[in-house]
Amino acid sequence: MPTTGTGESGVTAPNGHWAGTGLPEPPRTAGGVTLCGGCRALGACRLGVERERLDEGGVARFELSCPRSHEGGPDVAHGGWTAAVLDDCLGHLPLLHGVMSVTAELTVSFVKPVPVERPLELRVWADRREGSRWYIAGEMTLAPGGAVLARASGIWVTRDRSHYARHAKWLAGQVEATEGQ
Ligand SMILES: CCCCCCCCCCCCCC(=O)SCCNC(=O)CCNC(=O)[C@H](O)C(C)(C)COP(=O)(O)OP(=O)(O)OC[C@H]1O[C@@H](n2cnc3c(N)ncnc32)[C@H](O)[C@@H]1OP(=O)(O)O
Hints:
By secondary structure, this protein is of the alpha+beta class.
């Protein structure tokens, strides 16, 4: 990935475009974590994802922990955090292959309460690809011991930059239609 260098935050500022998407490459942290729009100003993943990489077998591996700010019950993660981080990390698998996609469907199994501020791991792989659809699955485990805490599977649909332009046009039409009411 072409970059313009690493700033004080350790976030690499890209200057290239993803092949085939026409979209600017998203910034990555020193740990290789692609930052979404909401996390760019902070320069870190607010969900607590610290490292991400693609291994030789094509499996994406993440190191993370649930920040205390996402605590639900005492010392355990809010289920919304678990679902959000699984959505985010499963969607990073196409990104790691240079492909932009959006979540079309997501199913989450909450196997055990997820402790906050403990090292966790997440493995993500593609079960299969059909046309523009990626069928992706993943498993979250406690880093020491490997006990399974949560599983997720879903469908991601590949997109290019026209996705956002179409959405903006659709939204403008909705706003216009309601203004006369
Ligand atoms: C400027 C930007 C920078 C970028 C930076 C990024 C960086 C960071 C990363 C951040 C990333 C954040 C990412 C996020 O946060 S994603 C956020 C959550 N997800 C969304 O917002 C998606 C909202 N939904 C949609 O936009 C549409 O409904 C989609 C795109 C999903 C389908 O719309 P549409 O129907 O018009 O698409 P199509 O006609 O081209 O169909 C395509 C294919 O898909 C099949 N299909 C469709 N739906 C489903 C379904 N539910 N189950 C199974 N399959 C489904 C369909 O049959 C067809 O199959 P085939 O005929 O090809 O076989």
